[in-house]
Amino acid sequence: MQTIQSSRSLTPDLARGFMLLLIAMAYTDAHLGNWGTPANQAVDLQPTERLAIAFKTLFRDNRAYPMFAFLFGYGSVLLFQKMERAGFDRKQILSRLRRRACWLLIFGFFHSVLVFNYEILAPYGIALLITAPLLFKTDIQLKKILKFLIPVFTLMLIGVGFMYALPPETYGSGATATQVSTYWETVINGIINFPMSACMVLGYPIIPLMIIGMLAARKQLLDDRPAHRQSLKRIARVGITVSILGAVPLLLKEFQFWRSVYEIDALAHALHLISGAVGGVGYAALLGVVVLNIRDRNTVVVQAVSALGKRSLTGYLLQSAAIMLIMAAHFGNLGTQLSDFQSALVGLAVWLAAVTFSHVLERNHLAGPFDHLLRKLANRSIN
Question: Where are the membrane-spanning stretches (predicted)?
Fold first, then answer.
């Protein structure tokens, strides 16, 4: 299970490693007993709780998955180019990508059923099935597709925002791992919720963000080139500013700065979703700027976080399983006992453990076991 040593760029790996921190914090939060409810009773919250809610609203929620979608599209181009250099024809490339997508879908099903109902592997498997043929399109063709998709998905996100403004029990089960009495109930919920989770790709802008990532990869935007410094700074500045400003109305709503009105609440949710899509790209660009300013790339922190990014599938699955064992009612049961701030600390601790594990694998030149398995399964039919 040796890793292939190559001159891969640092930025995408570092960005994926950072993204997994946001996901770990989100997943611990999802196991809290009050998940799916607004952050009301704000006047009674401790300062640390206010800080945790402000952080997740302004910087985390609906920002990590757009960042992953952008990076997923970016990575699909790198994989496509690698296969082209190896001499694969169109049929072979599509076969390999579709196999990869189908296995992601299968991994996602078992992850949803056995570990966490609201997982992200299956949606990205579906997204890869849809976008694989687009890798053969020209930049002009991709931009034309984007011009059509962006307004369509913007309208969809507005609709999702109106759904989110409803009471949680109105639009979904709202059940968390703290609200079921046995592990088997979680398994059943996973089976029931899987189709809805997998079809998230249809309601969230995963596909347009992947296409943006494809275009960025063709320009080698995250390939650690000093020539891209100003472009990355501009994208980061605009993306993160839009992301924060777009999240402020929802934060004010959750802290009860106004009396709850359904239409206003819905627009706050919609703005949070739309601005988060922009913010995800901004986060990736910011990491590109950070990498260009790193003088010593051999520091433990840089190497360890990028090692996790190289093994993002393994890191994602192990983090999710660890969080379930710690937080779920039928295991560690901390989800019923922790506050938002404490939950974030658990997510941070789990992420640090994943970083450490990945760094050990890197030092021993070993791939992540699930990443290795996915490559083996996806490549099996390619001769």
Answer: 64-80, 124-142, 149-167, 187-215, 235-252, 272-292, 313-332, 344-361
